[in-house]
Amino acid sequence: MAENPRLPDQVSFYHLFLLLLIPCQVLLSPVPNDQIFQYIDGHQKEYIQRLKDWVAIQSDSSDPRKRQDVNKMMEVTKDFILQLGGTVEMADIGEQRLANGETIPLPPVILAEIGNAENKPTVCFYGHMDVQPAKQEDGWSTDPYTLVEKDGNLYGRGASDDKGQVLALLHALESLINMNDLPVNVKLFIEGMEETGSDGLEMLIENKKDTFFSNIDYIVVTDTPWLSKKPGITYGARGNCYFSIEVQSSKVDLHSGGFGGMVYEAMGDLIYLLNSLTDANGRILVPGIYEAVAPLSENEEDLYKDIEFDVDEQRANLGVKKFLHESKADLLMHRCRYPSLSIHGIEGAFSGTGTKTVIPSKVIGKFSIRQVPNMEPSVVEKQVKDYLESKFSERKSPNEMKITMIIGAKPWLTNMTEPQYHAARRAVTRVFNIEADMIRAGGTIPIAKTLEDYLGKSLMLLGIGGPDDATHGQNEKISKYNYIGGTKLYAAYLQELASL
Amino acid sequence: MAENPRLPDQVSFYHLFLLLLIPCQVLLSPVPNDQIFQYIDGHQKEYIQRLKDWVAIQSDSSDPRKRQDVNKMMEVTKDFILQLGGTVEMADIGEQRLANGETIPLPPVILAEIGNAENKPTVCFYGHMDVQPAKQEDGWSTDPYTLVEKDGNLYGRGASDDKGQVLALLHALESLINMNDLPVNVKLFIEGMEETGSDGLEMLIENKKDTFFSNIDYIVVTDTPWLSKKPGITYGARGNCYFSIEVQSSKVDLHSGGFGGMVYEAMGDLIYLLNSLTDANGRILVPGIYEAVAPLSENEEDLYKDIEFDVDEQRANLGVKKFLHESKADLLMHRCRYPSLSIHGIEGAFSGTGTKTVIPSKVIGKFSIRQVPNMEPSVVEKQVKDYLESKFSERKSPNEMKITMIIGAKPWLTNMTEPQYHAARRAVTRVFNIEADMIRAGGTIPIAKTLEDYLGKSLMLLGIGGPDDATHGQNEKISKYNYIGGTKLYAAYLQELASL
Questions:
Q1: What is the chain B residue with the closest CA to A363?
Q2: What 8-state DSSP symbol labels residue B320?
Q3: Which of A41, A248, A492, B100 could be bridged to A427 by S-S, CB 3.0 to 4.6 A?
Q4: Which CATH class is domain A240-294+337-409?
Q5: Which phi and psi angles does A153 have, rounded to 5°?
């Protein structure tokens, strides 16, 4: 010990020097040398290239003319799962009836399995491969179907909703498989009609309840965003009752010079009806609509106070002058545990740039109500129809008016103390060295309610989208931070789940 | 005489037989052998083919991307006038400033002359070669830019407004020239920006007041429809104050799930503002807007009682259940001598088929007021802006709102006892064997007011469109009856004018 009395000090200095070379974030992480994370970091380029290939397929399920692209997207996904060693069934779910009465085939649904060891738990993941409509002229900075990397973000339609999230999961599986470390059996349940209401899916679940879906322990939906940079685990989602109001005043569009002052214009009626839906503060004016909303429980508001969400920063990011509610808790509750109504647009009127002096003959207003527990879509439908029909009748217009509820998706809410939520929280801490936010989604994951109702298994929404991903808007993106970190999160979640 | 006592009787029977072979309509016409009419009848196929060629050029002036097509249309028109022996100047009228701040060249204006004999009167004709937007998916039965003949009608964008009308005039000139019978000097003044407000035209008229426009006796505008099968000569037109209301709530479109209940939605504000414009019966709610409307003169209502217009037939043709006014006179007066307001559509919102759950960030509502003597566009602009700004301020929305009057075209009204109106009435009687209806247009012919103000010459609107031509709508058409009869009408009018 006397030979070299200064050694311990020398070692200390040397080690201290080495420590200074290591980036701070690694120091904070409790498992800096997690092999699976290293593997994932080493394959980032490949993951981004695959996302680029998948975004390029215009799988817009709302446009019947793009049905072939949706089908192609399902095939490409199938091929990748086969590469991972999975087995895949492409389930036929019948036909879609279009507004004009024609029918076209619905895209097949992927029912895949990877592993079936008896001693391992089985997790079923749900995701979707279809996207919302997108056109560059809507205000995109770049072509929506060409993935563009800029300032740490990956821009493109579906980058976040939901191609990026499904790919993060598939890459997590690939990394675990390649490391010979897949600790669970996995089922993959991937559809192509989510953005238009998951046509045909409920019947498929019912039909496959005792076969594909029979031996499942956990269900995870990979289609939700976080509320901030901090990962969020979602235990609830609002529903969606999507309506159209169609008003027709003449057989064909008319010139506003030749006929203005002669006809009861369809647009006037539609605008009047749409204007009767909410007040200036967004409060829904449909009588009775708030009656079924679950009352606030005793400590419920506190849940929202703890969530990481910077109101002012969000406001500034969105370019919004003022939010409808001032406090963080109020705002978050109106985002996810109270209903809201949005008017999306009008079909059949002049929507181009410039001027057109037309009296549109038939116009279709579109709006939706995000409803919450315990609002039943069928009740909402009746309330909305009764109200609008009575408003229209008050107006005494001679025009034809028809209201249709196009989508009637239920809200969903579960118990966040179930075991797989613990696994997910531990995975978040391992990957991001932070406590996850426990949140409810403002959007709709109809599948959550349906799967839980039919299968009666624990269900969790573990998405990896960012709060500002602009899903459904222009310049949709996912950050590389979320995309790669999310891949690690799925891998870690499966490891944690196996060790429960 | 005794040699053949039965001869007179024989001749009578023979002539009676011959008379039976002559079609009825010729018998009713006072000038059955008018050579110019025979010439025109003999060239119908050629006239229709040329209309087909011209309709195929997509000269939509509202779409900057189609500016080259408008330019091409002007070139083709120039070439035909040169063929007729005319001289043509293509007048440069400068640039158009687009909404995004960019500028693009305006299409040139045709200033042409055919003949300059000192002993002949000079008539200046105005028409336009640009068209309204048209897409087959708007509800056209056939491609809007392919002229299709069906049941005596010629369908295609611009068939009636205004390519068909200008071509009828040019063919009338061609027929008179080929018969060596052009009895007047003709000037042709043809533009390519009428459908978007005749940008740059007023300055051109001012600049050319003492040159091209200096030695004109009469001005005729060939851009109006009749009110029935009966030809109409137009002595007045409404103006057009076209407005946009732009409301912006966020930087980009938002997902209605993620943000519904958080933001003051731009669509809600816009719908509210649009709804405040008229009541259920189309009455304009902008304060003071009716104050400047010229009061009804003593016998004015009688003018409308004599016009041929079958209210029930019109209603049925349009597929309209009920008109805003019941009596023929009331309806016609609200069509052309009282103002009306039409809402045309919304730019920036979801306008496709299917469902999109978007909260549009920036929406632009478009509406226009067809104003009448003595409503000044600048006064209308102030009234509308003041009213909407006060309504918006009442709403207390934090969003940005901006109102713009994009078009401010004046109404026009003249004295229908001027000499050229007599020539036109005589021409109508010669061609159609009927008394013309003296009418006012519900639409806008901004050029009428401008030309009259600058040149101080007698101006008449002698159009040949039909009442159901659906100009600005789907399936625009002109009937062969109007197209060919209209060609004869222009030829006869010039002959009658020369004999005044």
A1: B345
A2: -
A3: A492
A4: alpha beta
A5: -115, 155
